[in-house]
Amino acid sequence: MDKRYTRRDFLKIAGTGSALAGATALGCSPAGNKNTVSDAPAGEMTYRTNPGNGDKVSLLGYGCMRWPMTKDEEGRDVIDQETVNGLVDYAMEHGVNYYDTSPVYVQGQSEKASAIALNRHPRKSYYLATKLSNFSNWSRENSMLMYRKSFENMETDYFDYYLLHSIGNGGTKMFEERYFDNGMADFLMKEREAGRIRNLGFSFHGTQETFDYALSLHDKVHWDFVQIQLNYVDWKHASGRNVNADYLYSELEKRGIPAVIMEPLLGGRLSKVPQHVADRLLERNPDGSVASWAFRFAGTPSGVLTVLSGMTYMEHLIDNVKTYSPLVPLNQEELDFLEETAQLMMTYPTIPCNDCKYCMPCPYGIDIPAILLHYNKCVNEGKVANSRESENYRKARRAYLVSYDRAVPALRQADHCTGCGQCNDHCPQSIDIPHELHKIDRYIENLRQDTL
Amino acid sequence: MLKKLRVAIAAIFFICITLLFLDFTHAWLGWMVKIQFIPAVLALNLAVIVLLVLLTLVFGRVYCSVICPLGIFQDIVSWVNGKRGKKQKNRFSYSPAESWLRYTFLAIFIVALAAGIGSLAALLDPYASYGRIASNLFAPLWQLGNNFLAWIAERVDSYAFYSTDVWLKSLPTFIIAVVTFIIIAVLAWRGGRTYCNTVCPVGTVLGFLSRFAMFRPVINADNCRSCSLCSRGCKASCIDYKNHSIDYSRCVDCMDCIDTCKDGAISYRFAYGKKKAAAGPSAPKAPETGAGEKETGASRRTFIASAVMAASAATLKAQEMKLDGGLAEIQDKKIPDRQTRIVPAGALGISHFAQHCTACQLCVSVCPSQVLRPSTSLLNLMQPEMSYERGYCRPECTKCSDVCPAGAISPVTVEEKSSIQIGHAVVIRENCIVERDGVSCGNCARHCPSGAISMVSLEGERKFKHGRELRIPVVNVERCIGCGACENLCPARPFSAIYVEGHQLHKTI
């Protein structure tokens, strides 16, 4: 007899309980009586206005490059559509209205999956951005095909924002070849006139020369927006041949071009920081996450239209929504504090890999990002020894070797890298991948032979 | 008392030797296999041979009871059967020695050794038989258990355990191990030490010596009531209670009969003195016989049960890990058709190795790089050989030479090993990705521990591709030691573009 209504009773009791808890949380709760930290508030998102057409864009934009994955019946990696729907619904509810994808993201699955989730909402309630990602074949036919295919994939008749994808990789010459020699830039400008593209811009990684050249075309093309990599490390300490973000941003500001920010968190490198760096940030603001510092930094400049984050997990989405609901801009003292933090982090010899996976798949089966991220993790956790004399050498050696085998299957490890260099052309962070892999391989070989 | 001592020592030997095959490859356990009879003979280890002969001449065939792992294994099987009831415990009866069979097997063994048919001799070596059983049947279970622990360790961020590959190294050897296991287990289940006293060449040789042993169990005819209890409990079937005599060529000095006899008529004593000399010190009754053995038996059983459970979990997880979608597929490497097989540094050469190896699989069990595996060729069946499709002979490792009890792989240091040439690398240019795909590589040269591989320019028009200079590997065979790093790490699949040919005779470069 009891069994018949225990479940219902339980739910009822639990319901009343949480209602009460909610009431006390809202009302004047006595100290120590709060049972949970409140959810991210809805309706308090900070918006920026696009000076060109008045679009009200949420400061948090959704990067659709890191959707959660699952396996289909045949064991292939596919996007976990149900979870994506949940993420998008939450984001929409909390005011996120900018979604950025590309035909090449997530092994080519991102556009469709993003569209499935977004098309459950009114088309006018969000801004859609995708790109002309003609990296491997930039003939006019192929580029056209890619452009048309995006409409098909996303079941829409216009794009709010359309980008020439990652100019600068390959230098000015390749920029010309990909968009001007084949007439694609002219074509896209016509499409803009026709209203199928509401804003035309480009995303940039690479050398200053190409950036300057692209901006010099502003009078002719009129860039409605430009997407740049900006975060508190790259502001003054861009890695490789990349350009410092303070230069990129100031050049855009001069011309009044709104900036869309990518890599605000460096693929998680600014949230997975060494413990004492994390302590330093958390001590300064115990109520905010480590990541919130990076997002506040990226959102502070007023010329920033939106800050893209590839949020794979709900907790990341919630945290970022909180940070921007509303944004509390950084003051000068806090900016100085982050600059100090950046310098502190520079003392760690991590490899600037953001896990974008553009280098993949390696034709010889190497799991490049896994090797580099594992190395970075060990660097940050102090598990990379300098020599056999190091205090923690034995422990560090075992930890590195065992965790390496766990992180990367044997046949995909650095010792199989042929050094062919095909990956280097794809890396937006201009990492010399074979060089880094061989360096890691030598380190591991020294550990194995105990000759460090 | 004597029986308890026997059981205790036997348990230590059995557990330690088994552990050696499972994964406790500490050198300090290695002596336990180095004092095994046939390995000592093959290694021409005179000290051990003399010691074992003396041991047998003084105490009888205690070797068979406490040192030989296959003997102890049979005792365990026989004991388990006896535990089922009185009837099973006393299932034995005296039978005359099958001398004709025993000496035939001994003759076959000696002829096989002399003729260099190593694998036939290896089939008859009791230690090697046990080694094959342990490495083919027990070790995989142990490893799966380890992988289960590693699976747990990974989840609690501990580095105490790491996962190992469990793979079938050679089907014929595995089948031989299974068949040996079944034959030995069935014989022991029914007739105790039947195998030792009809087939085993070591049993025959030691049996011949133990007839003259100074100490042995003796039946005092005055006290004997001819109750036959000793005969029915004798797993070697060697006690003729009617005539109060014991066949010492078959008695393995297990001391069971001393406790079994209710009249104290059997005692273990100096055999050449007066008959009455040792009337007093006949062994007291031991109420809890074989308690230690029982415990180990039980824990072994639970271990195996848990290992099997772990196995299913571990394999499921392993598959999940391997299917990684965003990655290029990797073909398995295939074994090249080597003209000369490769044997480890320390083996001196193919024929020396073949003559001394007893195919116990100890080196195969301890090889951490998955390089050693039993040969499948008929002439060297079960004897290990090397191949590099799963790993290569690591420069810092000398494990196989550390453990080999038979002198087939003599001990080498890491420094010595770095200059012992066991083979040399050969380039197959058609397979090389530099020629085939026009990309630059050099992974073989980068990983060659002896710097024997250089990358040289391609001649003619193919020299440049996409503005990059293409270079192909060449091998300085004088410097190559045959470790297989190049073959293993070559990106060409399924056949590497560079592979190792073995050498008949190893040499120091």
Based on the structure, what is the oligomeric state of the protein chains?
heterodimer
- Poorly predicted ranges of chain B (pLDDT <50, ≥5 residues)? 275-305, 307-325
Structural class of chain A: alpha/beta
User: How is the main sheet of chain A built?
Assistant: 8 strands, parallel, barrel
Q: What do you see in this structure?
A:
By secondary structure, chain A is α/β, with parallel strands linked by helices. Chain A has two domains: 47-346, TIM Barrel, CATH 3.20.20; 368-449, no CATH class. In chain A, 44% of the residues lie in helices and 13% in strands. Chain A has an eight-stranded parallel β-barrel with strand order 3-6-7-8-9-10-11-12, surrounded by five helices. A two-stranded antiparallel sheet of chain A has the order 1-2. The longest helix of chain A has 25 residues, at 2-26. Mean pLDDT of chain A is 89; it is low at 13-29. Chain B is mainly α and 509 residues long. Chain B has two domains: 2-291, no CATH class; 422-509, 2-Layer Sandwich (Alpha-Beta Plaits), CATH 3.30.70. Chain B has 23 helices and twelve strands. A two-stranded antiparallel ribbon of chain B has the order 1-4. In chain B, a hairpin with a 4-residue loop joins strand 2 and strand 3 (245-246). The longest helix of chain B is centred in the middle third of the chain and has 32 residues, at 291-322. Chain B starts with a helix and ends with a strand. The chains are: A alpha/beta (452), B mainly alpha (509). The A-B interface holds A 69, 71, 75-77, 107, 357, 360-365, 367, 398-399, 402-403, 405-406, 409, 411-412, 415-422, 438, 448-450 and B 154, 159, 162-163, 321-330, 394-396, 433, 439-443, 446-447, 468, 489, 491.
